[in-house]
Amino acid sequence: MFDELRPHLKELRKRLGISLAVVFIMFFVCFSFWEPLLAWMIHPLNGVLPEGSHVIFTKVQEPFFTALKVSFFAALMISLPVIFWQFWLFVSPGLYEEEKRLVIPFVFFATFMFLSGAAFCYYVVVPIGFNFLINFGAQLFTALPSIGEYVGFFTKLLFGFGIAFELPVITFFFAKLGLVDDKALIGFFRYAIIIIFAVSAILTPPDVLTQFLMAGPLVILYGLSIVVAKMVNPASKEENEEEEKEEDAETKEIEDKK
Asked: Which of 149, 160, 147 minimizes the C-alpha distance to 204?
């Protein structure tokens, strides 16, 4: 069994190595201009800070480690196309020849959806969420947010939204492999709603509005995923007819009882 896994592990190590090497190189590139990157990150925060408030640091090492976090975050974002490309190359041996040609659309749409989620978070969720959190109780307290905590929270939000927006791409991949179809996704919808709101509550600030700003697009993306699955791997006609017969039988049984 181990001998069978060895080629896959070797290939996985190769793809991870290339991805990490690219991130490592981009990290040093981004570290050379971390200050404008940090200014971009704190721009939404500065826009909602009340007069007299400003960003501070509370630990001696905080500015340096914040620069490292900012550089790593930027390097990871820039390296996304390469990371998605390496992922596709890892799974491509198990695909058919016509499916292997989808590498460019996969890399493009995976990167596009991640950046779309991050952009939605940056331009919509962060300003609204932080406006609520910063100005809540502003008449009693002076807001002096720590730069290290803010950057950590900011990157967590952007990555959360970026990954969440990958849902249609992930569905396309699983549908291509025959692991899901539109019928399965429709049947799982009620549970998906619960999971979506639970994940939104974990990833977003503790206010209902921001949670809905994440849950709402995710519900729409889940609906889009159903359409994607139906286009790629639709449920068979026989299964749909069998399900309709079962529903008709249940309806008739209920009517007979009445």
From this structure: 160
Instruction: Give the number of C-alpha atoms closer than 13 A to the C-alpha of residue 227, restricted to the C-beta side.
Output: 6
Q: Are 84 and 106 in contact (CB under 8 A)?
A: yes
Q: E-assigned strands of 28-89?
A: none
Written as tens digits, the pLDDT of the chain (258 aa) is 555 667 767 888 888 999 999 999 999 999 999 999 999 998 888 887 877 778 888 888 888 999 999 999 999 999 999 998 888 888 777 666 766 677 788 888 889 999 999 999 899 888 887 887 777 766 777 778 888 888 888 888 888 889 888 888 888 877 877 778 888 888 888 888 888 888 887 777 666 777 787 888 888 888 888 888 888 777 655 455 555 555 555 555 555 555
56 forms bridges with which residues in the sheet?
146
Q: What is the pTM of this model?
A: 0.78
Tokens of 150: 């803010």
236 by DSSP, 3-state: which?
coil
Distance CA 233, CA 179 (A): 9
Q: Calculate ∠ Cα 186-187-192, nearest 5°.
A: 80
The answer to whether 58 touches 146, Cβ cutoff 8 Å, is yes
Question: 50 with 138: CB under 8 angstroms?
Answer: yes
How far is C-alpha 109 from the chain's CA centre? 13
- Could you give the 3-state DSSP secondary structure of residue 187? helix
Q: Which amino acid is at 67?
A: A
